## 1
Amino acid sequence: MTNDLPAADPATDEPTQTLAADVVSYAGAPDECTLSPRDATDDRTTTAWLTARGDAFVALDEMR
């Protein structure tokens, strides 16, 4: 996916868009978190997303 928007508005340093995070837990498999633009149209939600599984996540404190 190509995002032509800057990560933040240069004038305010505020994010240009927000993401929705949907977490699904599975009994016999790693949890999954899917990120997509919060304001995505129905057509775009099928192409503008990213899913990560359990071991792809790390604690924030470990990365500081």
## 2
Amino acid sequence: MAEMLVQFLNEVLGACWNVGLHVVATVLDMGTNNVKAVKLLGSARSEPFFQFQNQAIASIYDPPHLLKCTHNLFLKYDVQFKSECLDSQLHVIAKLEHIEKLYKHGKDFMICMLYKLTDTHLAPVTQCAMKVSLAAQVVSHTVGAGIYCLVSYGKEHCHHSFCFHLMVRNTVIIHSVFILW
């Protein structure tokens, strides 16, 4: 299947080239066949380009698919990394339970801090897991700010710190510091 995609992509790129269009990038979702096809063309993780008619063409993953994938993996796994925003050499751990605590805590107030979140956001069924809007709302600046507020006011006990970097809406980078317990 990937070989067929390579053939189709070469035909489309050739047709574009023949009418004077110079393609500078291809955008693909994270489907196995799509990833394999651009690898067959020569695109690699370290250098996400392939050559066509002596022109470098970038291979770019579709941001909504990246966001959904990140969200769905976060539902299953904790994230461990070193934080650049903390003056510590300790590893940082982000867990879904941190967001769940904030969600449950916020339900007690008349004016809810996370008014867009529902139970479906934190435990999506199959079709909901594919919605970009749900993924974006769970890993949003609002959620980060809510966790930061909870911790800042001493409502939780701290065990881990979490610096969460997200790409949301037109490559604006939202940088929220979570200090989680």
